[in-house]
Amino acid sequence: MIDKPGEIVKFDNVGLRYGTDPEVLSDLSFTLYPGSFYFLTGASGAGKTSLLKLLYLSQRPSRGAIQMFGKDMVTLPRGRLPDFRRRLGVVFQNFRLVDHLSAFDNVALPLRLAGTEEVRVRKSVSEMLEWVGLAQRAQACPPSLSGGEQQRVAIARAVIARPQMLIADEPTGNVDPEMALKLLRLFEALNNRIGTTVIVATHDVHLLKKVPDSLIMRLHKGRLSDPTGALRFPPRPGGSEPGGRAMSEPAR
Amino acid sequence: MSAPPFAEKPSRMAAPVGSRLAASLVPSSRFGGAMPWVIALLTALVVIAAAGGLALGNLAANARADLSGAVTVQVIEADPALREAKAARAAEVLTGETLVRSVRVVPRAELVELLEPWLGEGAASGEVPIPALIDVELTRTADTQEIAALTRALEGEVEGARVDAQSEWLRPVYDALAALQYLALALIALVAFATAAAVWLAARSAFANHRETVEIVHLLGGTDDQVTRIFQRAVIRDAAFGALVGTALGGIAVLALGRQFAGLDSGMVAGGALGLRDWAVIGAVPVIAIALAALTGRITIAFALRKML
């Protein structure tokens, strides 16, 4: 794990509601640190996807303050959002691949939007597809790919541009255990080699045990709790979490 | 397990969207959509209206140039002998004027021949008194005051002489031609508005159809400018096809109409022929149509994007 000073994300008393519905997220206050690996858990409907939407800048909160990369994301003009989105890699819950683009072009999209030279795009994307086992399916479009293949394309797209923060919503839900482990190793490699902060939302408790240095964020009915049930994150030092490392202040 | 391959760190700056990327993100309709054909029809209408307006302008300008340098003098006298004497005196007075280049007393036989279709055989019988006519060619185009001075000079010498500036006879015709030109301009403005509306609707529809793609591009760090360029490229492509087809169709119609009118072998109609400058104006129609479509598309997409985060 690469240690970096400072905070990459800071939520302060954040709430989110859609329209006039009740809040789906309430009173969220937490800090994420660069180079850390986080799992976000919670039952269906707990608000994991809504929290991730705030993190990948698809939603603004209804109340509270959000700082990312040292900037206030609540008042940031929308014209400046792309600069921050380029620092993120996102694996969406339903993949959100562009159906009429090939797997290759989907993975290449972040690099091409960032203006990377085509020769470098071709080399990087080919290697990434090879690594996720989709070299033979590079020219296939998402509708002709299986769920697992689509998921691997989505993950390849999220990590190809070496993001500062990777946000993944159920990234191993559609793949077999062997591929799930391989993809998790990809996230770990990104975390260890490049210092990417990784946030993985998952239901899979077995997955939590695979990354010993991870921290676990637990959402319950839109509120964040530590293993003791206290409404805070990171939890108090000394707590423990099955599979994950002993809970403490994250490595910095 | 081998180390995963990560790309070298890309630029954080927004990049211009390459044509290949733009084409792949918003697939082309292969001109199967309605917009190129609507633009083709509207451009053809503009070409025809513009050609009509320019031809009418030429026609009016040529007629004015022919007639504003001439006047007709009528000598109204019932007694034929006195009429001839007055006409001769009028011709003499006119010849002495510096403004006058040439004077021709129209022979009576020629007058009778001119009036016979309206007066029948009575025109030749002498029962109907016909004024003497004098065709006067001026050295240059005269203004109203100079014509008035000429009239005063003539009326002082010849009783019953009346000067008619030929351009005055045709004033209602000029007014009608001007009205038709304004009509052509109004038609062009309306069609331009219709073109902008068609592009607006098509761009909104395309944006709605590709909203998911736009959201993905946004979430991957694409800027509004990149998204706008992607759509603008598609709009320009369709508009270029429509404008060129429309100009070709309109041009063919204008040439066919021109040939038809040339067949009339009328001096006045010949004055409405289109010149090189007119064809250059018509040639600018597709360029303006494409620019208008591109601008409309850009504004439409920019407004649609403002509603997204």
Helix-residue proportion of chain A: 25-40%
Order of helices and strands of chain A: EEEHEEHEHHHEHEHEE
Q: What class would the helix/strand composition of chain A place it in?
A: alpha/beta
Largest interface: A-B, 50 and 36 residues
Widest β-sheet, arrangement of strands of chain A: 6-7-8-3-9-10
Order of helices and strands of chain B: HHEHEHHEHEHHHHHH
Overall pLDDT score of chain A: 84
The CATH topology of the largest domain in chain A corresponds to Rossmann fold
Oligomer: heterodimer
Largest sheet of chain B: 4 strands, antiparallel
Number of domains of chain A: 2
Please list the strands of the largest sheet of chain B in the order they lie side by side.
2-3-1-4
What keyword list fits this structure?
heterodimer, A: 252 residues, alpha/beta, Rossmann fold, 2 domains, 6-stranded mixed sheet, 4-stranded antiparallel sheet, 7 helices, 21% strand, B: alpha+beta, Alpha-Beta Plaits, 4 strands, rod-shaped
Characterise the protein shown here:
The complex is a heterodimer of chains A (252) and B (309). Chain A is an alpha/beta fold and 252 residues long. Chain A has two domains: 177 residues, Rossmann fold (3-Layer(aba) Sandwich), CATH 3.40.50.300; 65 residues, no CATH class. Chain A is 30% helix and 21% strand. Chain A contains seven helices and ten strands. In chain A, strand 4 and strand 5 form a beta hairpin. In chain A, helix 3 crosses helix 4. The longest helix of chain A is centred in the last third of the chain and has 18 residues. Chain A starts with 8 loop residues before the first strand and ends in a 27-residue tail after the last strand. The C terminus of chain A is likely disordered. Chain B is α+β, with helices and mostly antiparallel strands and 309 residues long. Chain B folds into two domains: 181 residues, no CATH class; 102 residues, Alpha-Beta Plaits (2-Layer Sandwich), CATH 3.30.70.1430. Helix content of chain B is 69%, strand content 8%. Chain B has twelve helices and four strands. Chain B has a four-stranded antiparallel beta sheet with strand order 2-3-1-4. Chain B is rod-shaped. The two termini of chain B are 40 Å apart. Chains A and B meet through helix 2, helix 3, helix 4 and helix 6 of A and helix 1 and helix 9 of B.
